[in-house]
Amino acid sequence: MLGRKGKRLLKAIILLLSAAFIFSIAVYFFYPNISKLKKENPKKSSFMDYREKQWKEEGKKITIRQYWVPLSRISNYMTKAVIISEDDKFWSHGGFDFDAIEKSVEKDLKEKKFKFGGSTISQQLAKNLFLNPSKNPLRKIKEGILTWRLEKNLSKRRILELYLNVAEWGEGIFGIESAARHYYGISAADLSADQAAHLAAVLPNPRKYNPTGSSRYVHNRSQIIYEIMVKRGIVVQEYEDVMISPDESGTAPTPPPLNDRMTSPVK
Predict the structure, then answer these.
(1) Which residue has the higher pLDDT, 40 or 264?
(2) What is the CATH number of the domain that holds 181?
């Protein structure tokens, strides 16, 4: 049994720990300075620092590759594919997709796992820029605060631009320009619809999947993304397939396979 002094000491320790916990969360309402991101590009993200420490511990000699590009120099196919793949309600929500979060929680409870899925692009940006891949509840609370601040201080276009430039696309590959050069030998501005769909398809786990590999998962997911772009009119069939009139029998010519029906990026 604890004596009176012991109880007082225990109470003081609990109060101190509680205060430290609250402070560790509250500080994210003021730090870091997010408003400067309106015009300044971050030199290095917290995720990059995390990976460098990880590589050092594993004895790997990997150099980060990142080439910053404005949104105007990123293929419109790429921006559309990422939104379809990662956050289809991006333009309308305030940083959180509560329907997706609810479904994710229900799935976690059913599987008795806590993966905290349903993250929006804004949430992923908050994690990539300022936090780490940990899935513990405390990190998710911090992520929520930072997401709210990002949405409050930055435009949607700027959030998307930042995300596309800091997202991880493979071991040491950060940002869409670096990914486009590494996987396809072209700039982000020249990515086709099919290439964009494949790059977007690997974002859930870019260190496991290769957009140019033979993974069935990547193939199926990229096809779904591509087909959604076709249905929404983002990808249009080649000019001659669209403009040619039906023949005299009243039937139109058979269109080429899905993967062949692509045009250059929409400006």
Answers:
(1) 40
(2) 1.10.3810.10
